[in-house]
Amino acid sequence: MQLTQENYISPDEAEAAFYAAFSHCDKKAMGEVWAEDDVVCIHPGSNVIVGYDAVMRSWTNIFSNAGLPGIAVNVIKRIHDVTLAVHLVEEVIATGENAYVSVLATNVYRKYEHGWFMVGHHSAVVQAATESHTLQ
Amino acid sequence: MQLTQENYISPDEAEAAFYAAFSHCDKKAMGEVWAEDDVVCIHPGSNVIVGYDAVMRSWTNIFSNAGLPGIAVNVIKRIHDVTLAVHLVEEVIATGENAYVSVLATNVYRKYEHGWFMVGHHSAVVQAATESHTLQ
Q1: Across chain A, what does the average pLDDT equal?
Q2: Which residues of B touch A128 (CB under 8 A)?
Q3: Contact A135, A121 (CB under 8 A)
Q4: Which residues of chain A make contact with B45, given a CB cutoff of 8 A?
Q5: d(CA B5, CA B65)
Q6: What does the pLDDT look like over B37-90, one tens digit per residue?
Q7: Complex prediction ipTM
Q8: Nearest CA in chain A to B88
Q9: What is the DSSP track for B115-134?
């Protein structure tokens, strides 16, 4: 496991670092948030990406395609155990002047010897606001 | 917490019950899998649904709109702690003759006094197979 300048002492600290890295398109900071493990990441609409190196490549792609995204984060639910934590988060991402997209993310954190790191990120765009759902 | 005939002794047992209920459009069985708590559920493209009763209404809607869906399940990743477990699962759902949709789900389970129950389900349709991702 990496020894970083920041050894996040809680899932909330790791999450704050994740969204700071995301909103600043900061590859180095993003690399420090994730566990160097068989982590899993799903971007909106994407297939699952497994493993630290592949996940980092995906963020590099995103950062190279995007301007600095304005992101407002609203934590809907936190579930914590001793070494595992799950946060359900709403990300409101600015996509243009007065244009926003609402994304829901399930973020998973594990506690390692040196602190808490992200091990899973599953995000999906909200497309409907009603309670009437079908299978797709 | 409910006392059911089935008190799932592991996250895997609860998950098997969840997909059995899903594939059979069985409201009663679905109701037994979820914790009677402030659970959270996100169907593909939907906003977050919070609370047992609202989540059950959403499954009732789905079951009333669907025929019996053929679902093949492939567990990609299991992360377990003492009282909390996260499974990343691929659901391949038949949508017609020789037509399928690939859905990725992050399923969250908690251990209560009477066994393991589902407390979170976040599912999203896979729309792209490449590693080139953007923010939406």
Answers
A1: 89
A2: 45-47
A3: no
A4: 124-128, 136
A5: 28
A6: 999 999 999 999 999 999 999 999 999 987 777 899 999 999 999 999 999 999
A7: 0.88
A8: A40
A9: EEEEEEEEEEE----SS---
Length of chain A in terms of residues written? 136
**Beta strand extents in A56-98 (DSSP E only):** 71-80, 84-96
Residue A57 dihedral angles phi and psi, to the nearest 5°: -60, -40
Cα A121–chain centre separation: 5
DSSP B43-100: -TTPPPEESHHHHHHHHHHHHHH-----EEEEEEEEEE-SSEEEEEEEEEEEEETTEE
C-beta of residue A87 within 8 angstroms of C-beta of residue A11: yes
**Which residue shows structure tokens 């600095």?**
A68
pTM: 0.90
Instruction: Provide φ and ψ at B58, rounded to 5°.
Output: -65, -40
A55: which strand partners? none
Count of residues for chain B? 136
Q: Which residue of B has its CA nearest to A124?
A: B124
Asked if B120's CB is within 8 angstroms of A122's CB, the reply is: no
> Are the beta carbons of B38 and B50 closer than 8 angstroms?
yes
